[in-house]
Structures are given as C-alpha cells and as structure tokens.
From TrEMBL:
Record localization: Cell membrane; Membrane
Gene Ontology terms, MF aspect: ammonium channel activity
InterPro entries (UniProt xref): Ammonium/urea_transptr (IPR029020), Ammonium_transpt (IPR001905), Ammonium_transpt_CS (IPR018047), NH4_transpt_AmtB-like_dom (IPR024041), RhesusRHD (IPR002229)
Membrane topology: Multi-pass membrane protein
GO CC term, one of those recorded: plasma membrane
Name under which the protein is recorded: Ammonium transporter
Gene: AMT2.1
Top-level taxon of the source organism: Eukaryota
Length: 486
C-alpha cells in the first residue's frame, strides 16, 4: 500500500532539511506545559476550590472537556481554526489525521510561507516543525479554554448538558476566534495583536462563562451564601501548576526557541508576581488580612493580562500591567460586583468574568499602549505595529485592540446563547434541586473523600469495614478483627 512521504523521507534521511529540531523540541515541551495546566492543574484546582460535595463533579468537568476537545480537534476543529479560509472569520473543517500531517513548512503551499505583499498588515507564519506538533500545541489551548469556561458553571450545570456543550462551543465559538486572530482571518490581517490568547482564550472563556452562567441559572441559595474550598493546600498545588505551565503558554507562541520566547517567559512571570502582590496588598488594606484565594486570583489576573502582550512589551511594561491587573479586576470583583444588579444576578461560581474577561480585555488594551516596535517585528514581520506609548500611528493600534475585543465579546455572547438554548430543548441545563442538595453522590455515585463523621450518621454499609458494635470510648472492632479509630 502506497503512502505519502515528503521528499526527504523518500531519500532515506531520518530528518527532512526543513526541520529545526530545537524549535520542535521546545514546541513539544511548551505544548505539554500548557496541557499540564489543565491536566492535572485545573482538575486539581477545581476539585479542591469548591465545596466538598462538588469536588468530583468539578474535576470531572475539566477531565471530560480535555478528552472531548482532543478528539474533536483532530477530527474537524483544528482545520476550522488554522486551515484554508471558508469565511473571513472561519476556516474549512477537515481532519488533522494521517501521515500527510507530518509535513512542515517546506511542504506548505507558497501562499502560507512568510511573505508581505504590501496589502497585509500581518504576514503568515511558517514554523519549521511538523504539523503534528502544531496540532498538539494548539489543542492544549483549545482544551484549557473550555475548562476555564467551566469555572463559571461549577456546582449546578447538568453534566449531560456539559457533555453536549463542549464540542458545540468548540466548533461554533472557539474556532471563530482562533481563525480570526491567529489563523489568517480578518482580525489577523487587520493587525490586531493577541500574542498568546488574551482574546482567543481568556476573553472568550470569561464572556462565554458568564453568559452560560446566566442561562444555566444559579446554584442553591445555600451554596451561593457559603461555598468554602474543601482543600486550600491542594488548591495551591493546582494554582502552582497553572502558573508554571504559563511559561509554555506564552513562551511557545513565537513557534521558535528564540529571543522573543525568552522575553515572553520572563514578562509572564514578572506580571504574575506583581499582580499577586498588588491584589494581596489590597486585601490587607481593605479587609485587614491577606487571602490565599485572593492571592491566587491576583496571580491569575496577572497571567491573563500579560498573555496578549507577553513577547511584544518590555519588562517595565510587564510590571505596569501587573499593577493594573492587580487593581482593576480586584475592583470589579470586590466593589463593582456588589453594586451591580446584573453581576449579582448571574452566579459566576469562580468569578471567571473578572479574572479572565476583565483581565483579558485590560491586557489587550494595554498591548495597544505598550507594544514595542522592535519586539513586534521579532514576533511577526509587520510594518507599523506599535503601541500608543511610542507615538506616531501607535494610537491606531490601541483602537484596533478595542475593536478586536468587541468582536470577541459579541460573538461569544451570541454563539454561547444559541448553543445553550438549542441544548436546553433536549437536555435540562441545570441539575434538579434534589441533585444540587446531594452533590457528587447523586451525579456520579462517588464522593471525593472516603471519610465519615462530617455531620452524618454512621452507616456500616456506606462507611466500609466496621461492624455495629462500638465501644463507649469511641473505638470499635473492625470486620477483620482490627481495632480502628473512629
């Protein structure tokens, strides 16, 4: 059976001439780091930041999304985001499977090689590694977007509705933003800068999460009033994986292990650290004590804010962005949220609107101010991209950034609403009140912790290897003749 092989392989060489092994190795590492942000990062964070009765369900929503996106991505969605143009905002669907996807830049059509013909603000990128690497790298971004979105609807969305929502939202919402800004669509050609997903990932997940929370409806009143994390230390472990994984998130987007990727990694950590410290200081000033959850939120807003700008701003700008990402989302969450009827009405479980939508729009706007011309030229062969801080035509870039944000916001509100309304015709979006009262045991028949005594009566059929005879001192004889501490 004949199979397609690039010319280099037909000649018997182990590596084609166009392959840059260093870039390929870094890209695979970066993709894995981004994947680890979801699996296990957000699985751990979600499973521990929610009430004990929702630990399994919250972790499973992330686990399911990661798996479902993988299959949808290679089957049709990758080509919709990075394939040939169908519409100015959408690519043609198609599979990313088979041996022909081992080809790299040298085998791409001439139209997809680096070029600038005077009519395009932003030229196409042709990375020198296999297409399989690109498919995997971009998959990790698509997956984490759905998982971040899930943070808005934890603790009440029907798991069956979520299972239907993931492939539909990936197809009709995510791919549009990705193609428009990254895959050669109209925002890409217009010169809107989204270095690593401030718009494609964070604004879309924050806006769509808030929209989904509106349509799904709120948690039980009791859960909204008190929703303590079941394990703060484990939550910090998940947050740590999220932070460290961001080096691949932003560092992998030049598609090369170059100067730009080093700058992106450094700026990412500078902004995250600054934002965390500013948020913590605000908590101490206004509430008298530092909050661990608040510190994690500040970390996330810093990471989100720098994402659209990571490789195109200087270090001082990363610090300025960290200060603002620690202040503005803190204000919208702690002050504006409590005064807004709309924000109070919509039950956004983890405040994804503030940490991702607000911080993402802020980061995109600040990119329009601080994008440095030389760094922009290292990222893409552009002619006049620079922030308003550098004068000249820089103010135009700021307006482009705002227009790009408006498109992403509008599309995600409409697409998410339509998808959920269609699903609701077949599957209820919200769990029943009885299921909401019980939690994981009602939904999955499983509980996060094999412990008893948390306000419940002892039941030897439920709590394991104990008999019915318990001594007065609180000790009992186990079913296998072992004395067990209750």
């Amino acid at each position: 059976m004949a199979t397609y092989l690039p010319t280099a392989y037909q000649n018997g060489t182990t590596s084609p001439d166009w392959l840059n092994k260093g870039d390929n190795a870094w890209q695979m590492v970066a993709a894995t780091l981004v994947g680890m942000q979801s699996m296990p990062g957000l699985v751990i964070l979600y499973g521990s930041i929610v009430k004990k009765k929702w630990a399994v369900n919250s972790a499973f929503m992330a686990l399911y999304a990661f798996s479902a996106v993988m299959i949808c991505w290679v089957t049709w969605a990758y080509k919709m985001a990075f394939g040939h143009k169908l519409l100015p905002l959408w690519g043609k669907a198609g599979p990313a499977l088979g041996q022909k996807y081992l080809i790299g830049a040298a085998d791409l059509p001439a139209s997809q090689h680096n070029h600038h013909n005077g009519t395009l603000e932003t030229a196409m990128i042709a990375p020198f590694f296999p297409m399989a690497t690109m498919v995997f790298f971009q998959f990790s971004f698509a997956a984490i977007t759905l998982i971040l979105l899930a943070g808005s609807v934890l603790g009440r969305m029907n798991i069956k509705a979520w299972m239907a929502f993931v492939p539909l939202w990936l197809t009709f919402s995510y791919t549009v933003g990705a193609f428009s800004l990254w895959g050669g669509g109209f925002l890409f050609q217009w010169g809107v800068i989204d270095y690593s997903g401030g718009y494609v990932i964070h604004v879309s997940s924050g806006i769509s999460g808030f929209t989904a929370a509106y349509w799904v409806g709120p948690r039980l009143t009791k859960d909204r009033e008190r929703f303590p994390p079941n394990n703060v230390l484990l939550m910090l472990a998940g947050a740590g994986l999220l932070w460290m994984g961001w080096s691949g998130f932003n560092g992998g987007d030049p598609y090369s292990a170059n100067i730009d990727s080093s700058m992106a990694v450094l700026n990412t950590n500078i902004c995250a650290a600054t934002s965390l410290l500013v948020w913590t200081c605000l908590d101490v000033i206004f509430f008298g004590k530092p909050s661990v959850i608040g510190a994690v939120q500040g970390m996330i807003t810093g990471l989100v804010c720098i994402t659209p700008a990571a490789g195109v701003v200087q270090g001082w700008a990363a610090i300025a962005m960290g200060v603002l990402s620690g202040i503005i989302p803190w204000f919208t969450m702690m002050v504006l949220h409590k005064r807004s009827t709309l924000l109070q009405k919509v039950d956004d479980t983890l405040g994804v609107f503030h940490t991702h939508a607000v911080a993402g729009v802020l980061g995109g706007a600040l990119t329009g101010l601080f994008a440095e011309p030389t760094l922009c030229s290292l990222f893409l062969p552009v002619t006049n991209s620079k922030g308003a801080f550098y004068r000249g035509p820089g103010g135009v870039q700021f307006l482009k950034q705002l227009a790009g944000a408006c498109f992403i916001i509008g599309w995600n509100v409409v697409a998410t609403s339509i998808i959920l309304l269609v699903i609701s015709l077949v599957i209820p979006l919200r769990m029943t009140d009885e299921q909401l009262l019980i939690g994981d045991d009602a939904i999955h028949g499983e509980e996060a912790y094999a412990l008893w005594g948390d306000g419940e009566k002892y039941d030897n059929t439920k709590h394991g290897w104990y008999d019915d005879t318990t001594a007065g001192d609180g000790r009992g004889q186990g079913a296998r003749g072992v004395t067990i501490e209750l």
